[in-house]
Structure formats: structure tokens, C-alpha cells
């Protein structure tokens, strides 16, 4: 079933983005525009600073404005279901549209938004902008990254990896630390979020709850 979105305007999308997101999240969008010839972004992020919600909105906006398909790849089906819920929430709360669809949300302009786990067997039939959620927590990042590059090979499509840090995923660490490519990289820590007026996290409380090493890993994108 197609979901009618044809009269959602760019002005409405911009107003929703301005109302919901913090400055550091909007900077991720600016990074997409500023990455030059690169079609790949890699963001290493603190936990719980709204990355999933932001990238879902970005994908919805692009799907509405361009008709391009958007493909989310997550470590688990449950993570994909959460992303699906964000799309439906944005559409309902800001555009008064009740979207339907579980693994796929089909829009009336021909675009589809897919929510898939890394074990999905149907990637070969897809093409679009790819978002890899929690890339460092995939069981087989190398295989998933190869698939992602394949289904986003057209010049009009982009790739975005966003994740908290995981030193045990050597393949992701190697890609993150590689300077010899054209990937646009950015780190956003809990301090960056708080400095941009994010009021959702209590840093002292988190520092009491986590050990120094755990806090550094989960919220400062660092490890020893």
C-alpha cells in the first residue's frame, strides 16, 4: 500500500527539522552537503544523542523530495522496527500522515524506505541511499559494507555509517582510522551534544553509573 505524501513541501520539512533537532544534528546534514566528491559519511557518535531519529528524518526528507529509495541496515530486526517507528512518528506529528508498512514504507511518489537487518537475503534487488546503523556492532561488517557499496553504486546515491565505538570490531576500526580515502568523518561526543544545548543527558549521573573506561567508550568515543 502506498502512503500519500505528495503535498508535503520542502518548507514543511525544514520547519519540522528546525523544531525537533539540535544544532549538532543539523550539522550532520550540513556535512552531507559539504562532503564534496565523497558520497560516504562515517560518524562515530556518543550513545543516546539522537542519531537514529535524525538519520530517519533525513531519509524521509530525501525520499519525499527526490523519490530516491532509502535503505536502513541494522544489526537486528528490533533496531529496524525502532527506526520504522521514528518515521511514522515524524509523519504523524509534523505532517498529519499515518504511514503504514513494516519492513518497507512505500510512498506515493515512488520512493520506498526499507528497514532491514544484516541477515536479510533480498539486498540484491535494491538500490538507493544506504544508512548502516550501529555499524561497529554488526556481526559481519565486511560483508554488510560490501553489500551497502553495491546497492548505492549509482552516483546519485549516498552511504552513511553511524555508530558508537566498539574496539572489538577490527574491520570498522580499520575503516574509521584509514586516512587514505575520501570518506567524510566526524566524531560527536556527549560534550559536543551538551555544548549545543542538548538537555536530554545528565553527564554527572552517567559518570556515576559507568566506570571511567565505559563512559569514555560509550559517550566520548574513546578507549585505551
| CATH superfamily caption | P-loop containing nucleotide triphosphate hydrolases
Query: Could you say which structural class the secondary elements and strand pairing correspond to?
Result: alpha/beta
CATH topology: Rossmann fold
Number of helical segments with 4 or more residues: 9
Summed over residues and divided by their number, the pLDDT gives a mean of 93
CATH class descriptor: Alpha Beta
Beta-strand content estimate = 15-25%
In the CATH hierarchy, what is the architecture at level 2?
A: 3-Layer(aba) Sandwich
- Structural domain count: 1
What is the CA-atom radius of gyration, in angstroms?
A: 17 Å
**Strand order in space, largest sheet:** 1-4-5-3-6-7-2-8
Termini separation: 50 Å
Low-confidence stretches: none
Structure description:
The protein has 224 residues and is α/β, with parallel strands linked by helices. The protein has one domain: Rossmann fold. 44% of the residues lie in helices and 17% in strands. Strands 1-4-5-3-6-7-2-8 form an eight-stranded mixed beta sheet, with helices on both faces.
Keywords, separated by commas or semicolons:
224 residues; alpha/beta; Rossmann fold; 8 strands; 44% helix; globular
Amino acid at each position: 500500500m502506498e502512503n500519500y505524501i505528495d503535498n508535503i513541501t520542502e518548507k514543511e520539512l525544514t520547519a519540522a527539522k528546525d523544531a525537533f533537532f539540535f544544532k549538532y544534528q543539523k550539522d550532520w546534514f550540513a556535512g552531507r552537503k559539504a562532503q564534496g566528491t565523497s558520497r560516504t559519511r562515517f560518524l562515530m557518535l556518543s550513545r543516546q544523542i539522537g542519531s537514529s531519529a535524525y538519520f530517519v528524518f533525513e531519509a524521509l526528507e530525501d525520499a519525499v523530495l527526490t523519490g530516491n529509495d532509502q535503505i536502513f541496515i541494522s544489526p537486528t530486526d528490533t533496531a529496524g522496527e525502532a527506526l520504522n517507528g521514528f518515521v511514522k512518528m515524524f509523519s504523524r506529528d509534523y505532517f498529519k500522515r499515518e504511514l503504514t508498512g513494516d519492513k518497507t514504507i512505500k510512498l506515493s511518489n515512488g520512493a520506498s524506505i526499507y528497514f532491514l537487518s544484516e541477515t536479510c537475503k533480498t539486498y540484491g534487488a535494491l538500490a538507493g541511499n544506504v544508512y548502516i546503523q550501529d555499524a561497529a556492532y554488526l556481526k559481519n561488517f565486511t560483508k554488510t559494507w560490501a553489500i551497502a557499496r553495491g546497492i548505492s553504486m549509482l552516483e546519485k546515491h549516498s552511504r552513511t555509517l553511524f555508530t558508537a565505538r566498539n574496539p572489538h570490531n577490527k574491520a570498522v576500526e580499520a575503516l574509521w582510522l584509514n586516512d587514505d580515502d575520501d570518506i567524510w568523518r566526524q566524531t560527536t561526543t556527549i560534550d559536543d551534544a551538551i555544548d549545543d544545548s542538548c538537555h536530554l543527558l545528565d553527564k554527572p549521573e552517567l559518570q556515576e553509573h559507568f566506570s571511567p573506561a565505559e563512559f569514555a567508550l560509550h559517550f566520548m568515543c574513546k578507549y585505551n
